[in-house]
Protein backbone atom coordinates (compact mmCIF):
# COMPACT_ATOMS: atom_id res chain seq x y z
CA UNK A 1 0.00 0.00 0.00
CA UNK A 2 1.56 3.33 -1.04
CA UNK A 3 1.98 6.15 1.44
CA UNK A 4 -0.42 9.00 0.75
CA UNK A 5 1.75 12.09 0.39
CA UNK A 6 0.96 15.42 1.98
CA UNK A 7 1.15 16.85 -1.52
CA UNK A 8 2.09 15.41 -4.93
CA UNK A 9 2.76 18.13 -7.47
CA UNK A 10 3.56 15.65 -10.25
CA UNK A 11 -0.14 14.82 -10.40
CA UNK A 12 -1.33 18.29 -11.44
CA UNK A 13 -1.45 17.29 -15.07
CA UNK A 14 -4.88 18.45 -16.18
CA UNK A 15 -3.46 21.53 -17.88
CA UNK A 16 -0.16 19.91 -18.94
CA UNK A 17 -0.39 20.56 -22.69
CA UNK A 18 -1.54 24.13 -22.19
CA UNK A 19 1.37 24.73 -19.80
CA UNK A 20 3.81 23.33 -22.35
CA UNK A 21 2.35 25.56 -25.05
CA UNK A 22 2.64 28.59 -22.76
CA UNK A 23 6.28 27.81 -22.01
CA UNK A 24 7.06 27.46 -25.73
CA UNK A 25 5.28 30.72 -26.44
CA UNK A 26 7.61 32.48 -24.00
CA UNK A 27 10.71 30.67 -25.28
CA UNK A 28 9.91 31.73 -28.84
CA UNK A 29 9.01 35.29 -27.89
CA UNK A 30 12.54 36.27 -26.86
CA UNK A 31 11.04 38.36 -24.04
CA UNK A 32 11.67 36.86 -20.60
CA UNK A 33 11.28 39.57 -17.96
CA UNK A 34 8.41 42.08 -17.57
CA UNK A 35 6.74 41.53 -20.90
CA UNK A 36 3.18 40.85 -22.07
CA UNK A 37 2.67 37.67 -19.98
CA UNK A 38 3.32 39.47 -16.69
CA UNK A 39 1.18 42.40 -17.73
CA UNK A 40 -1.73 40.15 -18.76
CA UNK A 41 -1.42 38.00 -15.66
CA UNK A 42 -1.44 41.07 -13.43
CA UNK A 43 -4.65 42.23 -15.10
CA UNK A 44 -6.26 38.82 -14.99
CA UNK A 45 -5.32 38.25 -11.35
CA UNK A 46 -6.53 41.68 -10.25
CA UNK A 47 -9.80 41.01 -12.03
CA UNK A 48 -10.11 37.57 -10.44
CA UNK A 49 -9.57 38.99 -6.94
CA UNK A 50 -11.64 42.10 -7.48
CA UNK A 51 -8.55 44.09 -6.50
CA UNK A 52 -7.89 47.50 -7.98
CA UNK A 53 -4.25 46.75 -8.81
CA UNK A 54 -1.95 43.73 -8.97
CA UNK A 55 1.83 43.86 -9.28
CA UNK A 56 3.91 40.73 -9.90
CA UNK A 57 7.00 40.15 -7.77
CA UNK A 58 9.50 37.33 -7.28
CA UNK A 59 7.86 35.50 -4.35
CA UNK A 60 5.37 35.79 -1.52
CA UNK A 61 7.81 37.03 1.11
CA UNK A 62 9.01 39.84 -1.15
CA UNK A 63 5.34 40.64 -1.77
CA UNK A 64 4.86 41.22 1.98
CA UNK A 65 8.02 43.31 2.23
CA UNK A 66 7.39 45.48 -0.83
CA UNK A 67 3.68 45.81 -0.06
CA UNK A 68 4.39 47.04 3.47
CA UNK A 69 7.16 49.39 2.30
CA UNK A 70 4.74 50.83 -0.25
CA UNK A 71 2.35 51.55 2.64
CA UNK A 72 5.16 53.57 4.26
CA UNK A 73 6.25 50.98 6.80
CA UNK A 74 9.92 51.68 7.48
CA UNK A 75 12.70 51.05 9.95
CA UNK A 76 11.57 51.39 13.57
CA UNK A 77 7.84 51.23 12.79
CA UNK A 78 5.69 48.67 14.58
CA UNK A 79 3.48 46.18 12.76
CA UNK A 80 1.04 43.88 14.55
CA UNK A 81 1.27 40.23 13.45
CA UNK A 82 0.36 36.72 14.61
CA UNK A 83 3.20 34.47 15.76
CA UNK A 84 1.86 31.20 14.31
CA UNK A 85 1.98 32.01 10.59
CA UNK A 86 5.30 30.50 9.57
CA UNK A 87 7.57 33.51 10.14
CA UNK A 88 6.94 34.95 6.65
CA UNK A 89 5.59 38.35 7.68
CA UNK A 90 8.17 38.56 10.45
CA UNK A 91 10.92 37.83 7.90
CA UNK A 92 9.67 40.69 5.74
CA UNK A 93 9.54 43.00 8.76
CA UNK A 94 13.09 42.10 9.73
CA UNK A 95 14.25 42.98 6.20
CA UNK A 96 12.54 46.37 6.53
CA UNK A 97 13.94 46.94 10.01
CA UNK A 98 10.39 47.29 11.34
CA UNK A 99 9.34 45.70 14.61
CA UNK A 100 6.95 42.75 14.69
CA UNK A 101 4.54 43.18 17.62
CA UNK A 102 2.93 39.82 18.30
CA UNK A 103 -0.76 39.45 19.09
CA UNK A 104 -2.50 36.22 20.05
CA UNK A 105 -4.83 34.25 17.78
CA UNK A 106 -8.46 33.25 18.19
CA UNK A 107 -8.92 29.72 19.42
CA UNK A 108 -11.46 28.73 16.74
CA UNK A 109 -9.64 29.69 13.54
CA UNK A 110 -6.06 30.20 14.74
CA UNK A 111 -5.98 33.60 13.00
CA UNK A 112 -4.87 36.85 14.65
CA UNK A 113 -7.53 37.93 17.14
CA UNK A 114 -9.05 41.36 16.52
CA UNK A 115 -9.21 42.33 20.21
CA UNK A 116 -5.64 41.18 20.82
CA UNK A 117 -4.50 43.03 17.70
CA UNK A 118 -6.20 46.21 18.84
CA UNK A 119 -4.64 45.92 22.29
CA UNK A 120 -1.19 45.66 20.65
CA UNK A 121 -1.55 48.99 18.80
CA UNK A 122 0.68 51.84 20.03
CA UNK A 123 1.49 55.30 18.67
CA UNK A 124 4.28 53.69 16.62
CA UNK A 125 1.98 51.13 14.92
CA UNK A 126 1.81 51.51 11.13
CA UNK A 127 -0.09 48.39 10.09
CA UNK A 128 -1.76 45.10 11.01
CA UNK A 129 -0.97 41.99 9.00
CA UNK A 130 -3.80 39.45 8.83
CA UNK A 131 -2.53 36.10 7.55
CA UNK A 132 -5.42 34.05 6.17
CA UNK A 133 -4.00 30.86 7.65
CA UNK A 134 -4.63 27.36 6.24
CA UNK A 135 -7.00 28.80 3.63
CA UNK A 136 -9.33 30.45 6.15
CA UNK A 137 -9.83 34.21 5.96
CA UNK A 138 -9.76 36.45 8.99
CA UNK A 139 -12.90 38.42 9.81
CA UNK A 140 -12.10 41.20 7.36
CA UNK A 141 -15.22 43.25 8.04
CA UNK A 142 -13.97 43.59 11.58
CA UNK A 143 -10.29 44.21 10.71
CA UNK A 144 -11.19 46.80 8.06
CA UNK A 145 -13.28 48.68 10.60
CA UNK A 146 -10.51 48.43 13.20
CA UNK A 147 -7.76 49.67 10.87
CA UNK A 148 -9.89 52.58 9.66
CA UNK A 149 -10.91 53.58 13.17
CA UNK A 150 -7.33 53.51 14.45
CA UNK A 151 -5.87 55.11 11.32
CA UNK A 152 -3.44 52.34 10.46
CA UNK A 153 -2.93 50.29 7.32
CA UNK A 154 -4.48 46.85 6.86
CA UNK A 155 -2.36 44.25 5.10
CA UNK A 156 -3.47 40.73 4.11
CA UNK A 157 -1.11 37.81 3.62
CA UNK A 158 -3.10 35.69 1.15
CA UNK A 159 -0.40 33.10 0.38
CA UNK A 160 -2.75 30.35 1.64
CA UNK A 161 -6.05 31.84 0.53
CA UNK A 162 -6.16 32.36 -3.25
CA UNK A 163 -9.84 32.55 -4.18
CA UNK A 164 -11.25 32.69 -0.64
CA UNK A 165 -14.17 35.11 -0.25
CA UNK A 166 -15.53 36.96 2.75
CA UNK A 167 -18.80 38.92 2.54
CA UNK A 168 -18.61 38.73 -1.24
CA UNK A 169 -15.06 40.06 -1.59
CA UNK A 170 -11.96 38.01 -2.32
CA UNK A 171 -8.89 37.74 -0.15
CA UNK A 172 -6.61 40.48 -1.44
CA UNK A 173 -9.41 43.00 -1.99
CA UNK A 174 -9.85 44.02 1.66
CA UNK A 175 -6.47 45.33 2.66
CA UNK A 176 -4.74 48.56 1.70
CA UNK A 177 -2.38 46.04 0.18
CA UNK A 178 -2.09 42.26 0.17
CA UNK A 179 0.45 39.61 -0.76
CA UNK A 180 0.18 36.32 -2.62
CA UNK A 181 2.71 33.55 -3.13
CA UNK A 182 2.72 31.22 -6.13
CA UNK A 183 5.10 28.76 -4.52
CA UNK A 184 4.30 25.40 -6.17
CA UNK A 185 2.29 23.96 -3.25
CA UNK A 186 -0.06 26.95 -2.88
CA UNK A 187 -3.66 26.76 -4.12
CA UNK A 188 -2.41 28.59 -7.23
CA UNK A 189 1.17 27.48 -7.78
CA UNK A 190 3.82 28.25 -10.40
CA UNK A 191 6.54 25.85 -11.57
CA UNK A 192 9.01 27.83 -9.53
CA UNK A 193 8.81 30.97 -7.42
CA UNK A 194 6.41 33.83 -7.95
CA UNK A 195 4.44 36.38 -5.97
CA UNK A 196 1.93 39.22 -6.29
CA UNK A 197 1.00 42.36 -4.41
CA UNK A 198 -2.54 43.64 -4.72
CA UNK A 199 -3.28 47.23 -3.79
CA UNK A 200 -6.31 49.38 -3.16
CA UNK A 201 -4.79 52.68 -4.27
CA UNK A 202 -2.97 53.66 -7.44
CA UNK A 203 -0.21 55.37 -5.42
CA UNK A 204 0.52 52.14 -3.51
CA UNK A 205 0.62 50.17 -6.77
CA UNK A 206 3.00 52.66 -8.38
CA UNK A 207 5.32 52.43 -5.38
CA UNK A 208 5.41 48.62 -5.52
CA UNK A 209 6.24 48.88 -9.24
CA UNK A 210 9.19 51.10 -8.40
CA UNK A 211 10.34 49.11 -5.38
CA UNK A 212 10.36 45.81 -7.29
CA UNK A 213 12.84 47.23 -9.78
CA UNK A 214 15.62 49.26 -8.15
CA UNK A 215 13.36 52.20 -7.32
CA UNK A 216 13.18 53.17 -10.98
CA UNK A 217 10.66 55.73 -12.13
CA UNK A 218 11.79 54.89 -15.64
CA UNK A 219 14.78 53.01 -16.92
CA UNK A 220 17.94 53.86 -14.93
CA UNK A 221 16.31 56.73 -13.03
CA UNK A 222 16.00 55.93 -9.33
CA UNK A 223 13.46 57.99 -7.38
CA UNK A 224 12.37 55.59 -4.64
CA UNK A 225 13.80 53.20 -2.10
CA UNK A 226 15.15 51.28 -0.32
CA UNK A 227 14.29 49.18 -3.37
CA UNK A 228 15.00 45.71 -4.68
CA UNK A 229 15.12 43.56 -7.72
CA UNK A 230 12.07 41.34 -7.25
CA UNK A 231 10.47 40.48 -10.56
CA UNK A 232 7.95 37.86 -11.66
CA UNK A 233 9.28 36.37 -14.89
CA UNK A 234 7.45 35.80 -18.17
CA UNK A 235 7.66 32.02 -17.94
CA UNK A 236 5.98 31.79 -14.53
CA UNK A 237 3.39 34.42 -15.49
CA UNK A 238 2.49 32.46 -18.65
CA UNK A 239 2.14 29.23 -16.62
CA UNK A 240 0.02 30.97 -13.98
CA UNK A 241 -2.27 32.37 -16.69
CA UNK A 242 -2.98 28.81 -17.80
CA UNK A 243 -3.69 27.70 -14.24
CA UNK A 244 -5.80 30.61 -12.95
CA UNK A 245 -9.05 29.47 -14.65
CA UNK A 246 -8.74 26.12 -12.82
CA UNK A 247 -8.39 27.69 -9.37
CA UNK A 248 -12.08 27.72 -8.37
CA UNK A 249 -12.49 24.09 -9.43
CA UNK A 250 -9.41 23.04 -7.49
CA UNK A 251 -10.64 24.93 -4.43
CA UNK A 252 -14.00 23.17 -4.70
CA UNK A 253 -12.23 19.78 -4.76
CA UNK A 254 -10.13 20.82 -1.74
CA UNK A 255 -13.33 21.69 0.15
CA UNK A 256 -14.88 18.37 -0.84
CA UNK A 257 -11.89 16.53 0.66
CA UNK A 258 -12.13 18.69 3.79
CA UNK A 259 -15.83 17.78 4.11
CA UNK A 260 -14.95 14.07 4.03
CA UNK A 261 -12.36 14.47 6.78
CA UNK A 262 -14.69 16.62 8.87
CA UNK A 263 -17.26 13.82 8.77
CA UNK A 264 -15.02 11.54 10.83
CA UNK A 265 -15.82 12.13 14.48
CA UNK A 266 -13.23 11.13 17.02
CA UNK A 267 -13.36 12.18 20.64
CA UNK A 268 -9.69 13.19 20.74
CA UNK A 269 -9.67 15.16 17.46
CA UNK A 270 -10.84 18.71 16.96
CA UNK A 271 -11.61 19.42 13.32
CA UNK A 272 -11.22 22.85 11.70
CA UNK A 273 -14.24 24.97 10.78
CA UNK A 274 -14.69 24.24 7.08
CA UNK A 275 -17.91 26.18 6.49
CA UNK A 276 -18.19 29.13 4.17
CA UNK A 277 -16.59 30.62 1.06
CA UNK A 278 -13.86 32.11 3.21
CA UNK A 279 -12.26 28.66 3.53
CA UNK A 280 -10.36 27.24 0.55
CA UNK A 281 -8.76 24.27 2.36
CA UNK A 282 -5.15 25.12 1.66
CA UNK A 283 -4.29 22.91 4.62
CA UNK A 284 -6.56 20.63 6.61
CA UNK A 285 -5.32 21.08 10.17
CA UNK A 286 -6.72 19.03 13.03
CA UNK A 287 -5.91 19.58 16.69
CA UNK A 288 -5.29 17.02 19.37
CA UNK A 289 -3.54 17.01 22.73
CA UNK A 290 -2.11 13.61 21.75
CA UNK A 291 -0.39 14.77 18.58
CA UNK A 292 2.64 12.49 18.70
CA UNK A 293 0.39 9.45 19.02
CA UNK A 294 -1.75 10.54 16.05
CA UNK A 295 1.31 11.38 14.00
CA UNK A 296 2.84 7.95 14.59
CA UNK A 297 -0.47 6.19 13.91
CA UNK A 298 -0.93 8.01 10.60
CA UNK A 299 2.62 7.26 9.52
CA UNK A 300 2.14 3.58 10.38
CA UNK A 301 -1.10 3.67 8.34
CA UNK A 302 0.67 5.08 5.28
CA UNK A 303 -0.65 8.64 5.61
CA UNK A 304 1.84 11.52 5.56
CA UNK A 305 1.28 14.41 7.91
CA UNK A 306 3.15 17.56 8.91
CA UNK A 307 3.04 20.41 11.40
CA UNK A 308 2.38 23.91 10.05
CA UNK A 309 4.26 25.33 11.84
CA UNK A 310 6.29 23.66 14.57
CA UNK A 311 7.65 26.88 16.09
CA UNK A 312 5.97 30.18 16.79
CA UNK A 313 7.92 33.16 15.45
CA UNK A 314 8.62 34.06 19.07
CA UNK A 315 10.20 30.61 19.61
CA UNK A 316 12.55 30.85 16.64
CA UNK A 317 16.20 30.70 17.68
CA UNK A 318 16.87 33.98 15.84
CA UNK A 319 14.15 35.83 17.75
CA UNK A 320 13.56 34.22 21.08
CA UNK A 321 15.82 36.52 23.08
CA UNK A 322 14.21 39.68 21.62
CA UNK A 323 11.83 41.70 23.76
CA UNK A 324 8.95 41.19 21.29
CA UNK A 325 9.30 37.45 21.83
CA UNK A 326 8.43 37.84 25.51
CA UNK A 327 4.76 38.66 24.87
CA UNK A 328 2.58 35.93 26.42
CA UNK A 329 0.54 34.23 23.68
CA UNK A 330 -1.38 31.48 25.48
CA UNK A 331 -3.66 30.44 22.61
CA UNK A 332 -0.80 30.33 20.09
CA UNK A 333 1.41 28.49 22.53
CA UNK A 334 -1.17 25.76 23.11
CA UNK A 335 -2.17 25.43 19.44
CA UNK A 336 1.42 24.97 18.27
CA UNK A 337 1.58 21.77 20.37
CA UNK A 338 -1.70 20.39 18.99
CA UNK A 339 -1.85 21.09 15.25
CA UNK A 340 -1.36 18.44 12.57
CA UNK A 341 -1.93 18.83 8.81
CA UNK A 342 -3.45 15.98 6.80
CA UNK A 343 -3.03 15.45 3.04
CA UNK A 344 -5.37 17.89 1.24
CA UNK A 345 -4.71 18.61 -2.42
CA UNK A 346 -7.07 18.50 -5.39
CA UNK A 347 -5.54 15.45 -7.10
CA UNK A 348 -6.10 13.08 -4.16
CA UNK A 349 -8.30 10.20 -5.33
CA UNK A 350 -11.55 9.35 -3.54
CA UNK A 351 -9.98 6.05 -2.48
CA UNK A 352 -7.07 7.90 -0.90
CA UNK A 353 -9.39 10.30 0.90
CA UNK A 354 -11.30 7.29 2.25
CA UNK A 355 -8.04 5.73 3.41
CA UNK A 356 -7.17 8.90 5.34
CA UNK A 357 -10.66 8.92 6.89
CA UNK A 358 -10.35 5.26 7.88
CA UNK A 359 -6.92 5.89 9.36
CA UNK A 360 -8.22 8.76 11.52
CA UNK A 361 -11.21 6.69 12.68
CA UNK A 362 -8.98 3.75 13.62
CA UNK A 363 -6.68 5.84 15.85
CA UNK A 364 -6.54 4.65 19.47
CA UNK A 365 -4.62 7.26 21.42
C1 LIG B 1 4.19 30.37 1.48
C2 LIG B 1 3.85 31.51 2.33
C3 LIG B 1 4.53 32.74 2.24
C4 LIG B 1 5.78 32.94 1.48
O1 LIG B 1 5.76 32.71 0.15
P1 LIG B 1 7.12 32.48 -0.65
O2 LIG B 1 6.68 32.62 -2.06
O3 LIG B 1 7.62 31.11 -0.31
O4 LIG B 1 8.07 33.55 -0.25
C5 LIG B 1 4.07 33.81 2.99
N1 LIG B 1 3.03 33.68 3.82
C6 LIG B 1 2.39 32.51 3.97
C7 LIG B 1 1.24 32.46 4.93
C8 LIG B 1 2.77 31.39 3.25
O5 LIG B 1 2.11 30.24 3.41
Search tags:
15% strand; 12 helices; alpha/beta; 13 strands; two-stranded antiparallel ribbon; binds pyridoxal-5'-phosphate; 365 residues
Write up what this structure looks like.
By secondary structure, this protein is an alpha/beta fold. Helix content is 36%, strand content 15%. The chain has twelve helices and 13 strands. It has helices spanning 16-29, 36-49, 60-70, 88-96, 114-119, 140-150, 202-211, 234-243, 247-262, 291-300, 330-338, 350-361; strands at residues 53-57, 78-82, 99-103, 125-131, 153-157, 165-166, 169-170, 177-181, 195-199, 216-218, 221-222, 284-287, 339-342. Strands 1-9-8-5-4-2-3 form a seven-stranded mixed beta sheet, sandwiched between helices. A two-stranded antiparallel ribbon has the order 6-7. A hairpin with a 2-residue loop joins strand 6 and strand 7 (169-170). The longest helix has 16 residues, at 247-262. Residues 59-61, 85-86, 88, 131, 157, 159-160, 181, 183, 193, 195 line the site of pyridoxal-5'-phosphate. Pyridoxal-5'-phosphate binds at residues 59-61, 85-86, 88, 131, 157, 159-160, 181, 183, 193, 195.
Amino acid sequence: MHTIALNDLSRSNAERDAVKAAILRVVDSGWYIHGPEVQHFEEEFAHYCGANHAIGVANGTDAIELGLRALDVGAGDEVVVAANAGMYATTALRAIGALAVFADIDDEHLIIDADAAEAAITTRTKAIVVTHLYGRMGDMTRFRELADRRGIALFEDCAQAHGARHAGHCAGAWGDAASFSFYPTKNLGALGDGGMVTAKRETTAQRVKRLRQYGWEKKYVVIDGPARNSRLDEMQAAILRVKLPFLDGWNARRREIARCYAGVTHERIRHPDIEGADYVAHLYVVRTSARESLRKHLRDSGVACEVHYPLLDTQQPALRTSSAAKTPLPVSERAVQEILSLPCFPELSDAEVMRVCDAIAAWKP
